């Protein structure tokens, strides 16, 4: 093995604190997102009483918020570079969205559920580009692909 190919097959990037933290942030934000995507349609259909089609469509606003905030945050990170502040803001917004979703009950309107989903989606979307950029910035050049796919 030559010096140029040394480390390509190794996954020692898990030892780097910045990469490890990026993995943890990505893991928790995605866990929140997938939990909501799985739970909310059941809630909208079973508790609020919407149709199956409507309960499936309730996820769309979250994804639109996610796409919008991911785009905005990616641009902000590249221009301003305040990834730590944006990362904290992302978790704060996700926390607010999750807290609002936890307050839903039988009398929750469909519009409220959509608003809560948009807030949560906005927070999740903010965390996505931040975790990728943070991990890519500290990864060895030959491991950027592995780090990105792991995030």
Sheet with the most strands, sense and barrel status: none
Enumerate how many helices there are, as a single number: 6
Mean pLDDT: 84
What best-fitting shape do the alpha-carbon axes yield? elongated
- Rg is 18 Å
The amount of beta strand, in percent, is under 5%
- The topology string of helices and strands comes to HHHHHH
Structural class: mainly alpha
What is the helix fraction of residues, given as a range?
Answer: over 70%
Q: What is the rounded distance between the termini?
A: 27 Å
Number of DSSP-assigned strands: 0
Low-confidence region ranges: none
Describe the structure.
This protein is mainly alpha-helical and 151 residues long. Helix content is 75%, strand content 0%. It is built from 6 helices and no strands. It has helices at residues 17-48, 52-57, 60-79, 83-102, 110-138, 144-150. Helix 1 (17-48) runs antiparallel to helix 5, helix 3 runs parallel beside helix 5 and helix 4 (83-102) runs antiparallel to helix 5. It is elongated and about 50 Å long. The mean pLDDT is 84. It is a multi-pass membrane protein. It comes from Acetobacterium wieringae.
């Amino acid at each position: 093995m030559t010096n140029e190919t040394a480390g390509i097959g190794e996954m020692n990037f898990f030892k780097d604190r910045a990469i490890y933290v990026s993995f943890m942030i990505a893991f928790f934000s995605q866990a929140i997102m997938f939990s909501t995507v799985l739970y909310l349609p059941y809630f909208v259909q079973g508790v609020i009483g919407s149709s199956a089609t409507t309960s499936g469509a309730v996820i769309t606003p979250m994804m639109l918020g996610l796409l919008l905030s991911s785009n905005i945050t990616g641009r902000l990170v590249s221009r301003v570079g305040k990834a730590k502040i944006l990362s904290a803001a992302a978790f704060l917004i996700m926390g607010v969205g999750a807290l609002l979703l936890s307050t839903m009950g039988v009398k929750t309107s469909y519009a409220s559920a959509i608003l809560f989903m948009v807030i949560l989606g906005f927070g999740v979307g903010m965390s996505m580009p931040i975790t990728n950029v943070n991990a890519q910035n500290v990864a060895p050049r030959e491991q950027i692909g592995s780090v990105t796919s792991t995030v």
